[in-house]
Amino acid sequence: MFSVKQQIESLRRQLHEHNYNYYVLSQPTISDFEFDGLMRQLIELETACPEYYDPNSPSVRVGSDINNNFTQVTHRFPMLSLQNTYSEAEVADFYNRVKRTLNEEFDIVCELKFDGTSISLVYENGRLTRAVTRGDGRKGDDVTANVRTIRNIPLVLKGDDVPSYIEVRGEILMPWSSFDALNKERAEQEEPLFANPRNAASGTLKMQDSRVVASRKLESYIYFMLGDDLPSRNHYENMTMARKWGLNVSDTMRKCHTLEEVFAYLKEWDIERKNLSVITDGVVLKVDSLIQQRNLGATSKFPRWSIAFKFNAEQAITRLKSVSYQVGRTGAVTPVANLEPVLLSGTTVKRASLYNEDAILALDLHIGDQVYVEKGGEIIPKITGVDKEARFLVGDKVTFTRRCPDCGTPLVRNEDEAVYYCPNSERCPTQIKGRIEHFVTRKAMDITIGPETVNLLYDKGLIRDAADLYLLQFGDLAGLERWGETSANNLIESIERSKSVPYERVLYALGIRFVGETVAQKLAHAFPDIDQLAHATVDQLVTVDEIGDRIAQSVTAYFANPIYAEFVRRLREHGLQFTLSEEVLAAKTDKLKGVSIVISGTFELHSRDEYKALILQNGGKNSGSVSKNTDYILAGDNMGPAKLEKAEKLGVKIIDEHTFLKMLE
Ligand code: IVH
């Protein structure tokens, strides 16, 4: 029989190997199901025997809710950036300068320039010990806990020839597919969208909760190695070695001996990069020999042995067929250009964003125009110009619509805003459908229907608003085209279940402008009954922590509107929760009234979320960062040193979980 320790070690070894096969080689040898089985076994054993905890276990990939207090770490070797060039002539200048300075044979390694956020990874005795962002080049944030969740970053390097200390540098990226899925989810939740995968990747890396990081599917590409004991004196060979150890080094890297070979690489990858799953915005050229690199040296900002060549933003030219308008659930109207389909960055583009009226006027756009479209890492392509020379039969000049594309109501534009709104929010079908779609989402009422079904039910006249969902009968659904008994039953059941969704989430589901999940929670605690909330004045509302004028105005306007008041009344009649639950209410106290608490570290008795809820339930304020207004830090194990230092400086009292729980007794 194997000991538990041996079993854990064997499972870890196997899982590391499978991760490598899957994420680096893209050649899995077992099914996802089998993989999950092994992972489950490992987690079970690790939970049972915490004494074998290892921060580099493959199970760490699922993330933890330890608060990442990003400690600032000084880079052992500064992280320089590169000089950018935009033309072949500038590349030739670089090449010739290197040639003159070295006055000997040299090779240039060409690599793709990955457009994400840079990271430095330190491996000690083959194990990942630290991951730090670039920061200002000299000092960066320690994001190790988050980086451990990135699947193609090995926690333990393979092979017995790994030096005792190496630092590798690379780029963290979010592939297009993950980016699109993330923004789709954010749009559903009415959270602000990420402008491009780069922002999404760097934002994700700085998140507090590494479980969320784990869910975002980031990837790494390694392009540099440092240390006192490197395997080779050439960059190319070091990268080849890094790949052997399990790091993800792109196989698009190529060693070039002449300037012509460099140009050929630039030309080839300007086209080929469009078929990659991640964004690249250029090529990085590096002198291969580390000795030559040292001889060439660096300026205060850039190395002299490397430059970046940036590709032109990808552009295509096509014909503008028409302009249409879309209205969202908040009534904002956005113009969309409908284009003759054209290939751009590997996808066929049929539509492009036109932003707003000012943007259309600035382009002097006419129907039938030949327009330039670009996809510069943004979500939807945009029109950047018009080829006016190509105009011979000019179509109508594009003027922004004055009426709602859906309900025909004249649009309004506030003086200091660029956006037009449809003011008919109570009756405009698109806005109504949008609100129903929001009402059913997972974080709101969690009713299992998608936008198509909402549309279908609305168009069939079966629902006019979300309250009508509660009137649906089995017979209404089973008769619908392509609806079987099972799906009808499931929907009815899911609607029924939603009646026990707690008040906080119902409040969020109403879709009051500016009332997101967190605001809804705060309002529910401050006004434990919807009647209290409905009668609250702006002055009363703004006394609630983090509720400002804008939210307060929106809440009072909502309840003052007879249509919404009636809507809420009907929901209540159907049995939805409009008061804070008995349990939460019974446990509610004023014991922490006016007390601001920051939570840091990991705990034994309760989870961080439970502590957060306890603070709120007892009238306290939970805040994310230490300031002069902080009364206590509720500290568990591994409290971040930065927070500790700040707390000491400001004289904030640090308490452990036992003391905190005593305060509530
Ligand atoms: S080498 C001293 N190689 O571009 C050399 N950088 O503008 C350091 N980048 O900060 C960088 N792909 O974030 C290098 N193949 C590549 C790269 C790359 C993307 C990023 C990196 C760096 C920035 C320089």
Q: How would you characterize the overall build of this protein?
A:
The chain is an alpha+beta fold and about 675 residues long. The protein has 6 domains: about 5-60, Orthogonal Bundle (Helix Hairpins), CATH 1.10.287.610; about 70-310, DNA ligase/mRNA capping enzyme (D-amino Acid Aminotransferase, Chain A, domain 1, 2-Layer Sandwich), CATH 3.30.470.30; about 315-415, Beta Barrel (OB fold (Dihydrolipoamide Acetyltransferase, E2P)); about 430-500, Orthogonal Bundle (DNA polymerase, domain 1); about 505-585, DNA polymerase, domain 1 (Orthogonal Bundle); about 590-665, Rossmann fold, CATH 3.40.50.10190. About 35% of the residues lie in helices and about 20% in strands. It contains 25 helices and 22 strands. The strands form 5 sheets. Strands 12, 13, 14, 15, 16, 17 and 18 form a 7-stranded antiparallel sheet that branches. Strand 21 (about 630-635), helix 24 (about 640-650) and strand 22 form a beta-alpha-beta unit. Helix 1 runs antiparallel to helix 2 (about 30-50), helix 12 (about 430-440) crosses helix 13 and helix 16 (about 505-510) packs across helix 17 (about 515-525). The chain is globular. The site of 2-(butylsulfanyl)adenosine (IVH) has 14 residues, from strand 3, strand 8 and strand 11.
